[in-house]
What we know:
The protein is α+β, with helices and mostly antiparallel strands. Helices cover about 30% and strands about 25% of the residues.
Amino acid sequence: MNAPHDKAAFRHIGTRPVRPDGVDKVTGKALYGPDFTLPGMLQGAILRSPHPHARIRGIDTRKAAALPGVKAIVTGADFPSLDSIVMAVGETASDIVDVARNCLALDKALYEGHAVAAVAATTSAIAEAALRLIDVDYEVLPHVLDLEDALREDAPILHDHVFTKGVTPKPDKPSNASLRAELMRGDVDAAMAGAAVVVSGRYTLEPVHQGYIEPHACVGSWNSDGQAQLWCSSQGAFAVRSLTAATLLIHQADLRVTPLEIGGGFGGKTTIYLEPVALLLSRKAGRPVRLAMSRGDVFRATGPAPGAVIDLKLAAAADGTLVAADMEFKYHAGAFPAGAAHPGVVGSVGHYRVENARLIGWDVLCNRPATKAYRAPGAPQVNFAVESAMDEIALKLGIDPIDLRLKNAVRPGDTQPDGAPFGAIGFVECLEAARAHPHYTAPLRANTARGIAAGYWFNYGGPSTAMVSLGEDGSVLVATGSPDIGGSRAAMAIMAAETLGIAYENVRVIVADTASIGFSMVTGGSRTTFATGLAVVEAAQQVIATLCARAAKIWRVAADQVAWRDGEAWCLAAGQEARHLSLRHLAARANNSGGPISAQVGLNADGYLPGFCVQICDVELDAETGHVLIDRYTVVQDVGRAIHADYVEGQLQGGAVQGIGWALNEAYIYNSAGLLDNAGFLDYRMPVASDLPMIDTVMVEVPNPGHPYGVKGVGEAPIVPALAAVGNAVSRAAGLRLRSLPLSPDRVHGAIESAREA
């Protein structure tokens, strides 16, 4: 399956057609989670812990239950007794017991906002009033928020059953260190001793939220026959089905999940929070129940990306060749074990050739909401440290920052962190394109400085299912199980139209529910256009084979005497070369030539390749206030081949903007009582349009031979180097190395003043 290299051979690939769901979204007709209603539906509300750490000695719901209009109340005790089972969903895996306890606490509340009870009533006002009547007997416990504090011998232990994984022999006492991951090669100490330059430092980052505009919401209905249904916004309806069914101990076939439109996810909607609670309420009340989060609930009770403390030493020879990397980092896991340390270790220096490496990562429990994926989970944090150190090496050795990266960049055939060779990657091409871009050589104005950073994400394939079927009029329906977050409907339509040789306008794409299509993994990890697209292409190819067989039957020739070209079957038999039948003609005759024409393909896509990204950032720094203005920004990325060019550019720009926000402003801010002080968009400072210049994009196309159209995932990589690109620019503007994010005005000004005093 080799990807063709000549873009001119394509009719639709790389074009920019109107997205199929665009009109409904801009006119407000599209149904999102908070929009969905059912007849007889009850309104739900959730009571959340006001304490960051507290034992729940009892919950008295009698007054609430007596309130007129209240139809059901549930607590953590309403979940069935569960055995520990680790389930992989998306890029992470979770113990199903932890998933259930995160939906409703049982014996302890582990963070402010942890759900402890839920009510269903005839109106939202009654449900909220009922919450105020629930009496929870809390025994307030000592809490811990800081990573280093959580690892102290005298730290409050969140879970008595958590023993550090990845440590041999197994520890003999529980710990807040839930996971240790490592990658070792070569002799790091010897290489460091012989290096011409060694840079070292401690880097810190705060947890940040994905910032999706649509809050979590769902409607659950549990019928008296045991069949249950959910309507929700999620990055994966099948993930919702598997996790919810496992927490409630019901068969997956008894639960039907219908995906609604999704107003952003970025990795944060790959798990469940409300869904099993809505179903428990529905089963008690005998009616459908709607649950929706407020914005404060989203910030306090859903998973941000982990903050980190990173200690790094990076060594190079006099010519800039990297000789060793020594890194130990700690990630916030939040209240339950996570798994960000693994991709952090793998992604830290995987874009460079470093023969000697000692990379150790820890996931650390603390009294914060359980962390979740955010685009490239675990990678931006360690990349910030590595790329900041690369900038220091470039300054110390007097080497151009891009030249330094070119000297060390991985190339096709080099070894990946997992030991396999890199395939058709375009990191070098990205660096060369960045160096040739007018931005890189443009003169800088007064008080401005330029930062460079590079990074990568390994991407993924995984299981996907797609169906392609023909209408009698020749129109084509494509059904997938992958929610559309970044324009995947358009990408699927383009690939189907390209394969079938028909007009893009003749293809319609739907996201099917879990009872209407085979299993698909979540939309995440930059896998959907690659993996689900591969299923669409193979299903379309099977439809073509059927169409050719039908044409052969009509012409009474052998099947191998028919070829498919430009949306038509052509006869190859001698003397009959002028005969051809269009897709529309064959579809119209389908019922008389063998029956309906459709194909469904389920596959576990392999052959995915990583994406590499280089970013250039110019900043203007006001040293008197510490305010940083992004003056110019360019993103260069190996995109494989852009299927819908607009959406690829949008992914590159969006990832960069989110990284800029992480670098400059965004952070969870807790007070000494362990309560979140900025649980809303007013105080949680995300970038808006007026904060940013137009972000230029350069799509480097090095096609993936493992996909018929050369696809590589593009959605993860653009956030990875953004933190360091901004950090390097601000550090150069300030004349000192800034290693703690966010680079908010108070922090930058304080660092400058401290340097002046010193």
